[in-house]
Amino acid sequence: MSFQSRLGGLALATFCALCAQAALAGTWQKSLRVPVTESYESNPLLRSNGGQSAWTTTISPSIKLSDMFELDQFNADLAVHEVRSSNTAARANRTDPRLSLSWLRQLSRGSFGLSGSYERESTRTSELQDTGLIYLDSTRTEKSIQANSQYMLSERSTLAGHVQYDDVSYNNRAFTDYKTSTANLNLNYQYSETLQPYAGLSATHYVPGTNAFNLSSSDQYMLQGGLKWRYSPTTDATFYLGSEHTSGVNKGSGGVGGVTLHHATALSDLSLAITRSVSPSGLGSFVKADQVTGNWSYALAERDKTGVDLTWRKNDDIYRTKASQVGAWFSHEWSQDWSTKLGYRHRILDQLGVSGKSDEISVSLIYIRPEF
Fold it and tell me: How confident is the prediction for the chain on average, in pLDDT?
């Protein structure tokens, strides 16, 4: 048994023991959400030619649990994504579970926490963003274990540490299974009420799975610094720059960084982000990507909201993929428990100069029970 497996087993056993203690001593707060969606998409696999359409019915019930027991906070999230399609060649019938557990203990000068998750999802969703490849509606499974700590060095400065182990697998040989071990350390300094500079360093070890051909492990080292700026009670921004070095298949060095902006008022909410990142992927190593995202929502009335979402991403890999998506939605709350949502989404995928497009319309009926 590997060191990572033994460490993961120990962390899981510790977490289960703590949850059992809380279950016996505390009172869990519970919330339920059940959206049911009917949608039509013209070309789910974004084929350049010969694309097929599909009607789908999706049911995604989720339950969230939380509890406080003295200095300990526990959270659990269980969800199932059930999909039934009129055309399984374009979009497969699926049952995808998701489970996450977390524990956080408050200490005299900081905190320490453990978390774990299991998630299964379609590569239509995960790989369109990560690699741009969606040959088939296949499955990606991810298991993750994390530990986080935070320590207050002084009234103004805080040191935060994070370690994480991920195990990602696919049921499609077009992708490479992989495991990653990551550790990072960040130093934050509260210069004033509006300015918070920070600096961080991280290291990631990437190991391709047994289904990889002639691929060796890779390592990535990153150093970055940034500034969090609170311009006003309604507006804040983050700026960061860094340098990274990667060994292995896609070895090289380069810059990373980004800018994020958030503006919120009583009626509207706006978020914008422009980033360059280097992250693990199912292509056998790390992938560099440039991405722009934007989200805007506005309250038309007490129970009516509308919004626009957009995403553009360019992956610097052997396929040179570019993916973009723009969507608009409208929601209405019928009561505290019931609401409906209408949506439209347009997607474009460009791969090696060949483009595929798709349009999707959807209507959702959502049941929410904040406490039960």
Answer: 89
Would the pLDDT of 172 be above 80? yes
List, as one string, the DSSP characters of 255-300: EEEEEEEEEE-SSEEEEEEEEEEEEE-TTSSEEEEEEEEEEEEEES
Three-state DSSP class for 17? helix
**Size of the chain, expressed as the number of residues it contains:** 372
Q: What does 233-262 look like in DSSP terms, one character per residue? A: TTEEEEEEEEEEEE-STT-EEEEEEEEEEE
Is there a contact between 246 and 286 (Cβ–Cβ < 8 Å)? yes
**Partners of residue 239 on adjacent β-strands:** 227, 259
pTM for this entry: 0.86
Rounded (5°) CA angle 351-356-359: 140
Tens digit of each residue's pLDDT (9 = 90 or more) over 188-222 = 999 999 999 999 999 999 999 876 666 788 999 99
Contact between 197 and 179 (Cβ < 8 Å): no
Alpha helices in the chain (DSSP H): 3-25, 123-130
Residue 353 pairs in a beta bridge with none
Question: Regarding beta strands 321-333 and 338-351, do their DSSP bridges make them parallel or antiparallel, or are they unpaired?
Answer: antiparallel
Phi-psi map region of 165: left, alpha, beta (phi>0 left; psi -120 to 50 alpha):
beta
| Other CB atoms within 10 Å distance of the CB of residue 252 | 12
32-46 residue pLDDT tens: 999 999 999 999 988
Closest CA to 99 of 69, 63, 67: 63
Q: How far apart are CA 248 and CA 217, in angstroms?
A: 6
- C-beta neighbour count of 234 within 10 angstroms: 14
